[in-house]
């Protein structure tokens, strides 16, 4: 009898895909969450215990991607599992694992730069300025706007993945993903630049006295370029982050250096 | 703080963190959400809101990249807000209390992500037997460990630590306060540096300066304004690039 993935199965995957990062571990990262998401479908497609055993183990493997895109990958996997279950003569297990590990990296890259590198700083920047002026709706805006997009991507993703599993390479190209990622990166970079200029309020209170007239160092710096101190500090830190230095360590150093410079009255 | 309220705050901290694990990373564990919520519970929403803005700025770039564990911003946010509202001290004192607590607490998350391996081993066994109920149960156990990794440090810090440090932070000399103020002002830089790193395309880096210069010289332009300009420039740049036509696949 032909086993079929129905709409309600995909909807189940959509709901379960929210738990993708559950029971997170260094060992398998989101692997456990992926298995949890596929559980009902595996139960349905493989009534035979031996086949089910193999399928469950397949999805306990290492997995890590961007949370919002996982339902898309799960949709593709659902389609592949469906074929696998209906074709007892060939084992597509390796192909399924390959698709998972082939997609998770690129999608994580897209998600991290578009959502965490671009969307979130924009929303955070707006929410911070609203909260700073006492607007009580700032947290609500921060939650509702990005998550409307999140839910849309997650819901559409599972159906889209299932439908285009057969020829998704061609379909991906028609989206021109790389171009849109570049647009998002440019937007993200400009927003971060704006945030550095508007929210990094590091100045120097130093004054310099020459024959009874005092010169404020800060106004000298402002004459060169407004916000030059925040810019230089950010660029120095960026250099070290890019080199792969431990971020918690850098933060600790920044705290100590900032504290000493503040104590000595060099920055404020 | 009373044991009851400490427990409530600890449970809320654990739940907010679990939304990242079980509700698809909805960003509910960000300071701009956590601080106002804790403020609401303790009866001072506005203070929570103001602290939320300060803490969000500091932790803006903080994110787990490939499983690394940054400073625990949930613990820092809950503790900082509870401290400010109950003691009435300023933002500098709150940072002084919250940031070290957040750094120390990140070890609990590292512990949880390591210990879950034991849970995984059991789940593997259930998978080997085709027992999907067993797998679901172990999934629950693993999540409970993660819950404890956040709620325990919050409870300990609030119930045992807060009153103890409140006396110490009350009488800080002025030059020390200047140092703390400087730290608060300079800390967001690390987040911005991390954001820049996640937007790592060397060829596009000049756009960072473009965004910076617009606001530095025209302070009236806000984030929305720069974002709008950014979309236009991005579209013009990318869709007019002839070389770009040739290869368009990330996979």
Automatic annotation (TrEMBL), chain A:
One of its GO terms (cellular component) is plasma membrane. GO terms for molecular function: transferase activity. InterPro entries: GatZ_KbaZ_carbometab, PTS_IID_man. Keywords: Membrane, Transferase, Transmembrane, Transmembrane helix. The chain crosses the membrane at residues 62-80, 180-200, 220-238, 250-267. One of its GO terms (biological process) is phosphoenolpyruvate-dependent sugar phosphotransferase system. This is Mannose/fructose/sorbose-specific phosphotransferase system IID component. It comes from Faecalicoccus acidiformans.
Automatic annotation (TrEMBL), chain B:
PROSITE patterns: PTS_EIIC_TYPE_4. The chain crosses the membrane at residues 37-59, 71-88, 94-116, 137-160, 180-200, 207-239. One of its GO terms (biological process) is phosphoenolpyruvate-dependent sugar phosphotransferase system. InterPro entries: GatZ_KbaZ_carbometab, PTS_IIC_man. Keywords: Cell membrane, Membrane, Phosphotransferase system, Sugar transport, Transferase, Transmembrane, Transmembrane helix, Transport. It comes from the Bacteria. GO terms for cellular component: plasma membrane. It is a multi-pass membrane protein. Pfam families: EII-Sor. It is found in: Cell membrane. One of its GO terms (molecular function) is transferase activity. This is Mannose/fructose/N-acetylgalactosamine-specific phosphotransferase system component IIC. The lineage of its organism: Bacteria, Bacillati, Bacillota, Erysipelotrichia, Erysipelotrichales.
């Amino acid at each position: 009898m032909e086993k079929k993935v129905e709409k309600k199965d995909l909807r189940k995957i959509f709901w379960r895909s929210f738990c993708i990062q559950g029971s997170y571990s260094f060992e398998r990262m989101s692997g456990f969450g992926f298995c949890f998401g596929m559980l009902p479908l595996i139960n349905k497609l493989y009534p035979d215990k031996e086949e089910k055993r193999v399928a469950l183990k397949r999805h306990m493997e290492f997995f890590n991607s961007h949370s919002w895109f996982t339902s898309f990958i799960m949709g593709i996997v659902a389609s592949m599992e469906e074929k696998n279950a209906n074709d007892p003569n060939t084992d597509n297990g390796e192909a399924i694992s390959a698709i998972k590990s082939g997609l998770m990296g690129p999608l994580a890259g897209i998600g991290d730069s578009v959502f965490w590198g671009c969307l979130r700083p924009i929303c955070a920047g707006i929410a911070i300025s609203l909260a700073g002026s006492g607007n009580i709706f700032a947290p609500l805006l921060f939650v509702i706007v990005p998550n409307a997009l999140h839910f849309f991507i997650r819901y559409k993703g599972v159906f889209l993945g299932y439908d285009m599993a057969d020829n998704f390479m061609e379909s991906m190209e028609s989206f021109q993903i790389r171009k849109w990622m570049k647009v998002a990166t440019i937007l993200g970079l400009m927003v971060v630049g704006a945030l550095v200029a508007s929210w990094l309020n590091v100045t120097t209170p130093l004054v310099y006295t020459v024959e009874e007239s005092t010169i404020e160092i800060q106004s000298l710096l402002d004459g060169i370029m407004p916000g030059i101190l925040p810019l230089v500090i950010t660029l120095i830190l960026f250099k070290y982050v890019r080199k792969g230095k431990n971020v918690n360590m850098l933060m600790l150093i920044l705290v100590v250096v900032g504290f000493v410079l503040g104590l000595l009255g060099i920055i404020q | 703080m009373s044991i009851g309220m400490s427990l409530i705050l600890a449970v809320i901290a654990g739940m907010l963190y679990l939304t990242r694990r079980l509700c698809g990373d909805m960003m509910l564990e960000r300071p701009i959400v956590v601080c106002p919520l804790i403020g609401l519970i303790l009866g001072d929403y506005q203070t929570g809101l103001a602290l939320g803005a300060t803490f969000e700025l500091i932790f803006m770039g903080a994110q787990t990249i490939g499983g690394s564990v940054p400073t625990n911003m949930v613990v820092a946010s809950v503790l900082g807000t509870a401290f400010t509202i109950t003691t009435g001290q300023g933002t500098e004192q709150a940072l002084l209390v919250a940031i070290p607590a957040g750094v120390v607490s990140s070890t609990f998350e590292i512990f949880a992500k390591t210990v879950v391996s034991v849970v995984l081993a059991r789940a593997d066994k259930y998978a080997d037997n085709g027992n999907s109920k067993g797998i679901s149960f172990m999934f629950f156990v693993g999540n409970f460990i993660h819950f404890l990794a956040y709620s325990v440090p919050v409870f300990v810090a609030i119930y045992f630590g807060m009153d103890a440090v409140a006396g110490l932070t009350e009488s800080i000399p002025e030059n020390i306060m200047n140092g703390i103020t400087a730290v608060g002002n300079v800390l967001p830089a690390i987040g911005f540096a991390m954001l820049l790193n996640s937007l790592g395309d060397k060829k596009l880096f000049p756009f960072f300066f473009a965004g910076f210069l617009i606001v530095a010289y025209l302070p009236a332009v806000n984030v929305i304004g720069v974002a709008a300009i950014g979309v236009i420039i991005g579209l013009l740049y990318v869709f007019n690039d002839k070389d770009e036509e040739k290869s368009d696949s990330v996979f």
